[in-house]
Amino acid sequence: MVIAYRREGGLSGDDRRIIEADRLAFNRGPPAETSPLTGPVLSRAGSAALMQATVTFSGDDDVVLDAVQAARREVSDPGGGLQAKVSGPAGFQADAIAAGQSINGTLLAATAGLVFLLLLLIYRSPIFWALPLLTVGAAELSSRALGYSLSALGVTINGQTAGILPVLVFGAGTDYALLLVARYREELRLHDDRHVALARALRTAGPAILASGLTVVAALLCLTVADVDGTAGLGDAGVAGVAVAMLTLLPALLAITGRWIFWPFIPRAGTTGQPQARRPWRRLGAALARRPRAIWATASALLAVLALGLTGLDDDLTRANAFRGDVESVQGQQLLTRSFPAGTNAPTEIVVPDPRRAPAVADAVADVRGVVGVQQSTEARPVCCSTPCSTATPTRPPPWSSSPPSARTPSVQEAPARSSAGPPRSSATCASRPPGTPA
User: Which of 125, 154, 290, 314 is deepest in the core (most CB within 10 A)?
Assistant: First the structure.
């Protein structure tokens, strides 16, 4: 976690006292799994300062949220021209968690609302829409239970999966419901017994539903070979969700409710409804059936043209542009970018298993073009990875220190070992780059 302070024209004496007071206040009772703040470290121009703390994240989102929120309550936006923002990896993680928590409920509500509107427009019944929506909702809950079971088996289920899976299940389930219900309504006009009509609808519409579902399943299985565990887990969970969507309660509910569920346009035996020749979808289907090869060839060519846009796909997604809105972690990164070398917010970490080789690794990294500085630390204390990181003891008010030397004279420091019983088991070196230098 990185706290950035900045004032145009330079930090004043009052600003430095505010920063020091913030550090002491936070360190009096840091949140769980959070180290005391170290620093402050002054930029070369004297217009900015930063402090750092290590947040130990072991999968519990509340640990990161508590630490970042506590820091933001203490330091953010003191006013008077002094800017203060909490950023760093922990800040970005906290903002991502908060965004995910707010979007899941909104996304599910928007999906359910859209499905409700479509069902109301298609069937023009104030009652019938409840059946497909109820069955799709049950499928969505079942897919969550399957997701929990998959996670117990070792499949990675994260916020990405939790957000996409409900949309996938709602879309697939509604699509399959429309296919079945359309055929069922036609059969109701041909048979007095609704059970016979439903059985015939299942036999005729079932193959189309199965083919559609298996096509989606085949596409989702491609995700399971991804190197990223979260993406591979999305494939497994998506397959389970589509399978559940195909096996819904809709046939049973249709058999129980009968014809009246379609009120006021109830399909009765012996009626044909709107004349077949006047139905626009009937005419479109007949036109497609007359020239199937020309239709699929034209559609394939059109899709190929639309796919040409992938040649200009830019996958350079950074943390700064991962959010639609303006979040504090991005604001803090912008403050750091204006005053400190690139990499200060999230420096490169190099883990060296053999601590005896750490000095050689540090020297080699320091010689790399664009590296501003290197710091070395053992496991005796949190690794202080960014170039301007302070090495002062956090329990005492540290002196103000300036930024590290330039890239020509990199800084290499080593923290003391945990005990004198033997050398530490591992060491880490970290490097940062000057602004504008590509990683």
Answer: 125
